Amino acid sequence: MVIVEGVPAYLYLDEEYIAHHLGRRQRGYGRGGRQQIERDHAHIQTGVRHGYTLGSPIGMLIENRDWVNWQEAMAVDRIRPGHADLPGAMKYGFHDVRNSLERASARETAARVAAGAVAMKLLEEFGIKLHSHVLSIGRVKANPPDQGAIDWDAVEESPVHCADSDVADQMMAEVDAAREAGDTVGGVVEVIAEGVPIGLGSHVHWDRKIDAKISQALMSINAVKAVSIGEGWDLLDRWGSEFQDVIEPWQRKTNRAGGTEGGMTSGTPLVARFVIKPIATLHNPLPSVDLDTGEPVQAHFERSDVCQAPPAGVIGEAMMALVLADAFMEKFGGDSIPETKRNFEGYQATVGPRLRYS
Ligand SMILES: Cc1cc2nc3c(=O)[nH]c(=O)nc-3n(C[C@H](O)[C@H](O)[C@H](O)COP(=O)(O)O)c2cc1C
């Protein structure tokens, strides 16, 4: 069950829109058998009437058909390094790691994508669009066009969700090589929100800084190990004059800071990158111990992805959308879309025409 609170009334919301994003999460080169089990669908249970939100919490139900497989047998005691197995078993006193491993599974990100789709729908009402693309898989790096020139339809078609069609085959070969070796690969993913108004977030509350909130949200995705706002990872070898986005009479020609300054959105697209580690479940398992006996064993293996970078972008979009929708409603408020629009348009009339990003 997914519950989304804080959505104003009169937002048009249908299950197909949410299903579209759930479907995007299930695709991608390198995914394993889990995705063959079912096509995710979020059944709207509450908060929507005749296609429009009511302002009350929106409840959505996503079935998990795999659940029946794990009810009795299939106990796991050969803990996997890099998963939630060992700390989960110790923390809760479990002897069957199944209890932790299923709950820590990225299966839960289906719920995030459903909630994120609601947030995206709200943001779209105000001209904000989110995208993502894969920057690298294993040792293969993309050389994507400038952000404004990316063909997002082509990215959607790409099996590796990559904006550089020249390296897509190499990325797939990297996934194949890892699979053949019984191994896994990770990658780097970029998430972009376009059309974000200036001034979301806060420079006066540490816990409302928009860059901090986005980092936390992206870092919370299973297997994410590093987050960068804009070109943050590249700035170590740059001087100040090479990094800041110069302000010309009401426009910026660069967006190295990734759309935030002082914890607030700056009016340029929001850009965040994250590293997703290679998956911990290896066909060629790593050394570990038996949870009950403490004897050395090979870690447990079961059906698993080889690379999860392509779907991780879709989850990243959802997480960024949730943070942005929150910050947006905090600034503009309102109980219905028309009321929020009045507030938004009143603010944009004072700042909007003065800002451009080219
Ligand atoms: C989209 C997605 C799919 C994943 N698929 C798998 C998988 O098939 N097998 C696996 O062992 N881990 C998979 N993971 C990673 C684990 O969920 C994650 O490593 C685990 O929860 C431990 O968390 P940590 O790596 O953040 O410490 C996936 C992660 C994501 C984002």
UniProtKB/TrEMBL annotation:
Q: Which GO terms describe its molecular function?
A: chorismate synthase activity; FMN binding
Q: Name one Pfam family in it.
A: Chorismate_synt
Q: Where is the signal peptide?
A: none
Instruction: Please name the pathway.
Output: Metabolic intermediate biosynthesis; chorismate biosynthesis; chorismate from D-erythrose 4-phosphate and phosphoenolpyruvate: step 7/7
What is a biological process (GO) this protein takes part in? aromatic amino acid family biosynthetic process
A Gene Ontology term for the protein's cellular component: cytosol
Coiled coil spans = none
EC number per UniProt: 4.2.3.5
Give the matching InterPro entries: Chorismate_synth, Chorismate_synth_AroC_sf, Chorismate_synthase_CS
Q: Which CDD domains match?
A: Chorismate_synthase
Q: Which controlled-vocabulary keywords does the entry list?
A: Amino-acid biosynthesis, Aromatic amino acid biosynthesis, FAD, Flavoprotein, FMN, Lyase, NADP
Its EC top class is lyase
Query: Which HAMAP family does the protein's record reference?
Result: Chorismate_synth
- Describe the family membership recorded for this protein in Swiss-Prot or TrEMBL: Belongs to the chorismate synthase family.
* Designated name of the protein: chorismate synthase
The organism is Geodia barretti (Barrett's horny sponge)
